[in-house]
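Hi there,

I know you've been waiting on this one. I reran it after we fixed the sequence typo, so this is the corrected version. Both the input and the resulting structure follow.
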Amino acid sequence: MAKTEDRQLAKDFVNLMRAFYIATQRPFEIRGDIKVSSRSFNVLYALKYHPNKEITMSALAETLYMSGQQLSKLVSPLEEKGLVERIHDTINRRQVFIKLTRKGSRVVDMAVSDMVKRISPELRIFTPAEKEQFSSSVRTLTRLLEKGEYQQW
């Protein structure tokens, strides 16, 4: 692919990411008593699906491309709501692990369900053929992104 085509592809990708960002930015309200921002949801989701069920705060911050301080500000309210638990290493007290609680796992499941409920009606505008094309494109895009630096873990 020529450099100009690479630039156009990158621009198209930025436009896709902006549309995705807009579609997923509304906060989730679970049972009326738990509100989870999209950034907090990303923390919970990463904890639920990360291969290490207990991960250090610094490793999670690196995984989510944020500073330890930013992560700590997100984790504190999640911990207060009983969604995550911080565990201090018994040998090195400065090393802090973070773990998703059962309640936190249920919140992730409910938030995903809420997203599906919100997005599904938007897909009704597509014909069956467009839905199949969209589905195939999403699967292909996911597979291609996971080849590069955008892979999850």
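Quick highlight: The beta strands are 28-30, 34-36, 54-56, 84-88, 96-100.

Best,
R. S.
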